[in-house]
Amino acid sequence: MAEHKEEPVLESVMDKISEKFHGGDSSSSSDSDDEKKKGSSSASAAEAMKAKIYRLFGRERPVHSVLGGGKPADLVLWRNKKISGGVLAGATAIWLLFEVMEYHLLTLLCHCLILSLAILFLWSNASTFINKSPPNIPEVKIPEDVAVNVALSLRYEINRGFATLREIGHGRDLKKFLIVIAGLWLLSVLGSCCSFLTLFYIVFMVLYTVPVLYEKYEDKVDAFGEKAMIELKKYYAIFDEKCLSKIPKGPLKDKKH
């Protein structure tokens, strides 16, 4: 009888212990659920804050996708430092040759072709005497689709430039007119200070360094850009109120009857 009495006591004790463990598990699971909810809410709040952050020029996509993606964007953003560094070193060497050493483009091309043809000619004739195979000269051809795509891209950009100039000439967009005039004036000043190759090299260096630096410090740059845009809009509103609004506008479009 004593054994039968001890068994239910032991069972009740074990039930209480198991209830405590299950209770702890349920509380821990509820805590983990709360933590997940908090984490998801904080993540959604962070995404909302990122969406509200001001980006230059109204940019909504990453810098890589804005630059077109693919290998050109990887090259500009220094995804492969060896290739990007090699391109930069090559452009610098070309600028040093033509600007610092005052080498001429036609002379350089002729000297490179003379050297290449002489090496290939001597190698092809000497291969019979030294019992080695002649050089394998690859056949170089420009693919038709590449040439067509380049021509279409140039045609599109040139037509867009002509359309912009035509729109400005009609006198309907004063803001765009002032921006284009300021840009052309700045380009003329730079052209008078340096040669075309130096100007091209400066533009290349800007395009090759500014995007990667902007991608690295985009939050700070965007915050500064937001403040600058607010100030520019303020000064432009004052300038528009005092000067631009008093200038007579160009002829309007004919009204449709």
UniProtKB/TrEMBL annotation:
Q: Which GO terms describe its cellular component?
A: endoplasmic reticulum membrane
List the keywords (alphabetical).
Endoplasmic reticulum, Membrane, Transmembrane, Transmembrane helix
Task: Give the membrane topology.
Answer: Multi-pass membrane protein
The regions listed as transmembrane in this protein's record are: 104-123, 177-210
Give the location in the cell. Endoplasmic reticulum membrane
For the region Disordered, give the residue spans.
18-44
Q: What is its main location?
A: endoplasmic reticulum
> In terms of domain of life, where is this protein from?
Eukaryota
Residue span, Reticulon domain: 72-257
* Membrane in keyword set: yes
Matching entries from InterPro entries are given as: Reticulon (IPR003388), Reticulon-like (IPR045064)
What is the protein name given in its UniProt record?
Reticulon-like protein
